[in-house]
Structures are given as C-alpha cells and as structure tokens.
Amino acid sequence: MQHVATEPRGEELSLAERAYRAIRDRLVMLEIRPGAPINEDQLAQSLGVGRTPVREALKRLQYERLITTYPRRGTFATDVNITDLAHISEVRQELEPLAAAQAARRATATDRATLTALRRELESVDSRRRDADELMRLDLQVHRAIYAATHNPYLEDTLVRYDNLATRIWCLFVERMSDMAGHVEEHGPLIEAIIAGDPDKAAQLARDHVEGFERAIREAI
Description:
Strand 1 (67-70) and strand 2 form a beta hairpin. Helix 4 (84-106) packs parallel to helix 10 (187-195). By secondary structure, this protein is mainly α. The protein is built from 11 helices and 2 strands, in the order αααββαααααααα. Helices cover 69% and strands 4% of the residues. The protein has a two-stranded antiparallel ribbon with strand order 1-2. The radius of gyration is 17 Å and the shape is globular.
C-alpha cells in the first residue's frame, strides 16, 4: 500500500500507533471496503505486528466511526452513508476555517517547509496526470499538514477524524466526480495564504473549499 503522510510527529511511533495509522488509511481510502469484515490475524500479518497493537488500533478506529462491532457477528468496516455528508460538512464548515486561520498565525518554519513542498506537488498534478487514488492521498496530506500547523492537538485530532469520514464519501463517488484535480488544486492558494500569515484569507478559502466539496459530491450522486 502506498503510504499516506499522516500528522507529523517527532518521536518514534509505537507499534500500536503504526498499526492504527496504517489500518485507518486503508479504511479511509476504501482499500478495506465498507461493510467488509475486519480480521485481526490478517491485519497483524500484513502489517508485521502482533495482535495486541492491532487490537488497540481497532479500539480507536471504532471510536472514530471507521469500524463497528456487532455482538456475536464480529467487527466490520462501517458503511459509507451519504446522509452523513450534511452532518460532517456542518462540523467542517466551522472548524476548517478556524484551523486554516490558526495555521496562518502559528505555522513554524518546519510547518511552512512542509506546506511549501506540498504546494510544489500540487503544481505538478496536471503534468503527471495523477490517478484518483494519488490525488486523494495528496488531499489527505495537505489537510493533515494544515491541521498539524495549528499546534492545537484537540483541533487537529477532531479535524483529522472528520476529514477521514469525508474522504471515505469522496472515494465512494470519485468515478463520478467531474473535476477532482481542480478540487485538490484549490489547496494551492490556501497554502499560500497560510505561509503568508494571512488568517482571514486562509479562513475564507478553507470555508469555500468545504462548501465546494459538499456541492461536488451532491452533484455526483
């Protein structure tokens, strides 16, 4: 599986954290399909870890609504329900602009370097003719880098969760999306506003991006 860059952290990741991030991104990208059974042994084997880290990871993923457990039936990837889109967008429309503004105020030199590198990747989207899977991974990278630049772990964790749920909906309808590259490229001006330290512009661009995402999904249904 191609790795999705996750929330930057300096320390060495524990086995449970590594398992959590790997399984999470498989669920988010629908590599584990909605409704599919979750097999602890298979996951442990594919990740090269024991069952204990996998079990710890699955507890977190259940809390994040990415998996669900039924008594006597087992554990499954949650279904992607389009009716959740309005609820998810309602939260993101409030918190994404806040995160963008705080990132513009608080981004460190390291954050700006990460965002600058992602900005360069965005510029190459058309020339490389990336496929949908790559575009979505790049979208996740950009969002997670912005959340990390807020230096508010509570805001970061909340938005990662909601962006993950939104991405699952996006993956479900991606083949019907008319201008996916354009949606991802919208991050360019947003990154520039954050690097320039312009919180008002960053907030407005983030709000427009979330509204555009919901509109694009509804048009694709």
